[in-house]
Design a protein that fits this description.
Elements lengths: L9 H25 L4 H9 L18 H14 L1 H13 L8 H8 L6 E14 L2 E11 L7 E8 L6 E4 L1 E2 L4 E3 L13 E11 L3 E3 L15 H10 L1 H17 L15 H33 L5 H30 L11 H11 L7 H10 L10
Length: about 375
Amino acid sequence: MPDGQSVSTAATMIERFEQIRPLLAAQSWRFDADRRLSDEVFAALSEAGLFRLLLPSQLGGCGLSLLDFMTVVEHAAAFDGTIGWLVGNGGGISRAGGYLPLDAAQEVFGKQSAFVASSTGAIGKAVPTKGGYRITGRWPFASGAPHATFFAPLCEVIEGNRQMVLAFLPREAVKLIDNWHVSGMKGTGSWDFEADNAFLPAEFVCDFQPIPTVAGVVYRLPGISAFVWTVATVPLGIAKGAIDALISVSSGHSRLGITFPLAERELVQAEIGRCLAKCRAAGAYMRSAMSALCESIESEGSDVVAARINYRLACSHAAESAVRIVLRVNDLIGARALAESQPFERRERDVRAAAKHTAMSAEQFVIGGRYALGGDISGASF
């Protein structure tokens, strides 16, 4: 179990992941059929601290750096898209421990089994009342909803300057709607949930762009940028897993009508090389863009807008690259990629689903190009 006063690294978290890999592998066939993780798998991920990656170490979290966070999520997604998605979402929203007052943060994240399912896919209403707010709305895509202990929807305060806030609702305050019937990322349990005039004390509500309660650039990221980071690395991890799976079978597998293994064909060798180069280049661009964004946040007078746009370009580029890589891998493996018993067809479904997230929308290329050309981006979301 993680030490509440130590700061973890990517290496220590990957080691914990590898310790539970046999359990995850034994049950991975169930994820799609059940449309959720089993209680046993979810508990193992929780106990390993993989849903506490960005939680401040003062609260028993891992306190990872942003780049270490990406490395861990990518590693998990290379094993399984569903696992990577939930580690990215759960571990990512744990950064809220650096926004909330200490008592509220301890209530939300105090138990090792804590998991916050967040949703910015819709905007609810937060009506001020004595001592807090009344929360009403319905929100989609709450990944991990079957196991969530708290839910963090985006709301608009209906009063004054109508600011955007995140409301941390306990599980008993919401109604869950099991409507996650999809082709990809089937095991993430990304259900809808709703609240109907639920009272929430003020200490469990924070601005979407909050004032941090602890030090660290992780907690000073722009709200949209912070949300994007939790999921944008997942497609690259899936692509890496697809390449690894192709390499692992290529020495003993040949296409119908071809007498020698894939590994001995120059076409396959060249394409694997290209896929590796594309995957590594996209990952390097993401890391570089995030590093530049952090530097701009910490440096007075820096062009944060340019850094944010560059960062969003990197995330959308990574998603597009990942889809192309997985499709190419599956083309190379041939008909075997169609078999549900093989580690290929599910990755294709998962990477397509992950890349459809609004965080990686192709609209970001429009914004980036418009900005480069000196156009007006005042109404753009980035």
